[in-house]
């Protein structure tokens, strides 16, 4: 009888040692999982890419019928900074009119950067194609300047003046007629009604 009890105790002891060994070897000492991991469809909300906010803007183009600026509405992506929004307006001007109006900026021109100061001056820097590919004549230059300046000032109340740069620096004139050495004020009297 003592031998039977001893045998039961040895078997129980070995079982306990084996179970303990299995427990520690299988990583049973960690925390229990409280639901499926996120990659398996847990209760965490699914994040969808944010839909960008859109902003309606008005661009100004020239017409063959007169020397006035004619409005054309576009929709651009809003934000994240006023400089980026202003850049999108300029990029839309470069793309040209969708209504058959005269595009004021050469299609080969590229916007390099827009910088806004606290004083309300927008510095708009174009690639050299902006001046190299520009049609000659004072009327064409005037149209280009005021399509750009009015489009920016009309859509951004913080922009009071626009300074045009070419290839990172000041240029004396766009094509020999209109001086680019000073910032331009908008002229809303040039807008067709």
Describe, in plain words, how this protein is organized in 3D.
This protein has 193 residues and is of the alpha+beta class. The chain has one domain (54-190): GMP Synthetase, Chain A, domain 3, CATH 3.30.300. The chain has four helices and five strands. It has helices at 2-25, 82-95, 129-132, 138-155; strands at 54-62, 69-77, 111-116, 121-126, 161-166. The strands form two sheets. A three-stranded mixed sheet has the order 3-4-5. It has a two-stranded antiparallel sheet with strand order 1-2. Helix 2 (82-95) packs antiparallel against helix 4 (138-155). It is globular, with a radius of gyration of 35 Å. Mean pLDDT is 82; it is low at 29-42.
How are helices and strands ordered from N to C?
Answer: HEEHEEHHE
Question: What is the count of distinct domains?
Answer: 1
Number of helices: 4
CATH class categorisation: Alpha Beta
In quaternary terms, these chains amount to: single chain
The residue ranges in which pLDDT falls below 50 over 5 or more consecutive positions are 29-42
Descriptive tags:
193 residues; alpha+beta; two-stranded antiparallel ribbon; globular; three-stranded mixed beta sheet; GMP Synthetase, Chain A, domain 3
